[in-house]
Amino acid sequence: MEDRMNYFSFQWHITDECDQRCKHCYIFSGKGCSELKSMTWKQMQEVVANCEDFCRIYNKLPYFYITGGDPILHPDFWKLMVLLKSRGIPFTIMGNPFHLDDEVCTILKACGCEKYQMSLDGMRSTHDWFRKPRSFDLTLEKVGCLNRAGIKSVIMSTVSKMNMNEILDIIDEVVKAKVKVFAFSRYVPTGGEVDTGMTAQEYRKLLEVCDAKYKQYEAAGCETYFNKKDHLWTLYEYETGQFRLPYNAKNGMIYGGCNCGNCHITISSNGDIMACRRVTDSKVANVFEDRLADVWVCQMEKYRDYDKFVKCSKCELKAWCRGCPAVADGTTGNFYGADPQCWKTKNDITGEVL
């Protein structure tokens, strides 16, 4: 596959239908959550065409993260798989374990599925409380189906105050199950419930102990790749000497950090275009009413005004980190507010207080 830098990514929710009602799910929080939506087959074809047209303008190729709900529950799911295969569009599925078996995974691989992402949000009792009874065991069981089919198995954990002390045990479980990729991201509050959040120092400690465990497994030849997805990993690695500011970095350039407004768009089940699915009020347009190329240079611009970041704009890591604006927005209502788990207090180059 070509370098991922040649791709523009779309997180595409084709349906809200799901076998679970996870307690931290953004789909079932807030107003209107009882009205489950799904795209029609005609609408899904329109989305593919719109995304291809957009990418053509920027000389990029589309990459889809197909999700829901559980996307496999959509009545036209397999028709979409065949369409993506015919168009040569690679994709990842972000779904549940409940409808996977060896045959399904083999067909997914034939359709071009590169990765299949599932969730573990704690050890057995915690995860099953968050999601659904028996889902912990089933998730680890289905890793084998994906691996046998040649699809990269991905486990993602959502970290909060409630399960932060179980992350090390989750790492042991995913390694034992031969998961190909593991990562975690932080819980995003949907109603200002800040009590679920970790303190900045608690989160830094979590990164420290996870980093140590990752290194132990890597030294032992572990086949699991530990994806340091959360951008605060950049801050941690900067402080510990694992990341250094490039000597040839140009002022005003963005080299990493949050992809919101940069190289990623979310399309919801009713066609709404969102800067980030975890920022609940980030709708900018609708894919059936607006041209993606126009949305990108107009409505999306307000999400890449990097000098507006209250804290990050004064930090020497602005071009590589910026924490998680979704967590800031969910906690304070300000997308450009300070990330509540960022522990940095001053710019180490200028001495400016952050």
Automatic annotation (TrEMBL):
One of its GO terms (molecular function) is 4 iron, 4 sulfur cluster binding. It comes from [Bacteroides] pectinophilus ATCC 43243. The keyword Lyase does not apply. Keywords: 4Fe-4S, Iron, Iron-sulfur, Metal-binding, S-adenosyl-L-methionine. This is Radical SAM core domain-containing protein. The keyword 4Fe-4S applies. It holds the Pfam family Radical_SAM. PROSITE patterns: RADICAL_SAM (PS51918). Its cofactor is [4Fe-4S] cluster. It comes from the Bacteria.
